Amino acid sequence: MTATPNDTMPLHDVLIVGGGLVGASLAIALDAQGLDVGMLEATPAGALPAVFDQRNLSFAEATVNALGALGVMPLLAAPTGAIRRIHVSRAGDFGRIRLDARAHGRDRFGQVVVARDFGEALETRLSQLSRLTRYRPARFVGLADADADAAQRVVRIVDAGGERELRTRLLVAADGSRSSVRDALGISAREHDYAQTLLVARLRTQRPPDGTAWERLTDSGPTALLPRGDGHYGLVHGVARDHADAVAALDDATFLARVQDAFGWRAGRFLACGPRSAYPIVGCVADATGRAARGAGRQCRADRASARRAGFQPGPARCPDPGRMHRRWRRSRRPGIACPPCAAPGAGPRAHPRVFRWPGQADLQCGTPAAPAAQRRIARR
Questions:
Q1: Closest CA to 233 of 261, 267, 199, 275
Q2: Which of 2, 97, 113, 353 has the highest count of CB atoms within 10 angstroms of its CB?
Q3: pLDDT at 336 over 60
């Protein structure tokens, strides 16, 4: 249901700020627990958040299973594309990485879903919830002063009726990388600009998709083809930020020629592409060190108590050190590293094959098939 401006300071078990993929999925999951959930959404009724556009979402099988259990996947109106094989190569190198789901006892690694179709399925499922209160359009303003050990949080919002206050036992920030909730809690964040922009479009090729997800790595950025369920590929073409506007402005024939040159001919000739969208790539990581870590530790203990009062049952383990968790997370996210001198700028002829390393995994040498054990580990990711 949608809240009316006359409601006076209602109390929710959980209040979610943000109605995108994360916020909407969480609201659906919590409704099955019998909790009173409120959700703040920036878009008005009848409109989808901007994140649900024509880009292609690649869901791992675990995500597909979870969304199926929430009743979202059966509501998709358009067919999905199954990822049964993965092929990765790099321009200038002889090797390639190939993964086949059947070799690992699986029917597929995941599915490709168009973001807009997924947003419409989420909206349909949200409309079926009986305990969800939706504040839309509404905007998070801040938090009222409260004791850190208080059983409730007082949240200030602005909606059609002006500024008002809501109470919640548990507050969830799902409002993206520019999170107003994070700012209100004094949690800083570090950003890394990759100086790249991804151009996304629907692509028609001479050979229809056969379940293979392709990725071609070049010095100027990656180009990927994701098998959609409508007989097209979802194209993702990375370009340097300085060249993004010029590439986006190319006519279709010139753009297709550029992408064909970057990707090659493994999927056949590129015939046509739909409208293009551009997405700058900027990484954002919340700071969990120093004072923020100590504050997060105190807040973690307070939130565990709040979660119990809201009906959750947190695990018996003690509250972990946020700084240590953050450091472990950063190590696990370390990208593949090419061994020198192969990766050195201006290096001479390669004396040995390029080696890619993932933390805790065997080396994969381009030019030889990946070791079966390493393949199995990648397939499980």
A1: 267
A2: 113
A3: no
pLDDT score of 225 more than 50 = yes
SS3 89: strand
CB count, 10 Å around CB of 149? Answer: 10
Secondary structure letter of residue 217 according to DSSP: E
Please list, in sequence order, all residues whose beta carbon lies within 8 angstroms of the beta carbon of residue 22, skipping any fewer than 6 positions away: 174
Count of C-beta atoms within a 10 Å radius of residue 138: 24
Backbone angles phi, psi at 110, to 5 degrees: 175, -165
Among positive and negative, which fits the CA dihedral 54, 191, 287, 17?
negative
Pairing between strand 212-218 and 85-90?
A: parallel
**Tokens for 336?**
């593949």
Measured between alpha carbons, how far is 378 from 381 in angstroms, rounded to an integer?
5
Q: pTM for the whole thing?
A: 0.72
Distance CA 232, CA 245 (A): 25
Residue position matching structure tokens 């929710």: 12
Closest CA to 164 of 31, 6, 42: 6
Which of helix, strand or coil describes residue 380? helix
Order of strands, edge to edge, in the sheet holding 355-357?
337-338, 355-357, 364-365
Residue predicted with more confidence, 320 or 66: 66
pLDDT, position 93: 86
Whole-number Å distance between alpha carbons of 302 and 300: 5
- CB-based contacts of 344, cutoff 8 Å, min separation 6: none
Average pLDDT, the chain: 80
CA distance 233 to 213: 9
Q: What gap in Å lies between CA 120 and CA 74, rounded to an integer?
A: 12
Dihedral sign, CA of 29, 31, 34, 36?
positive
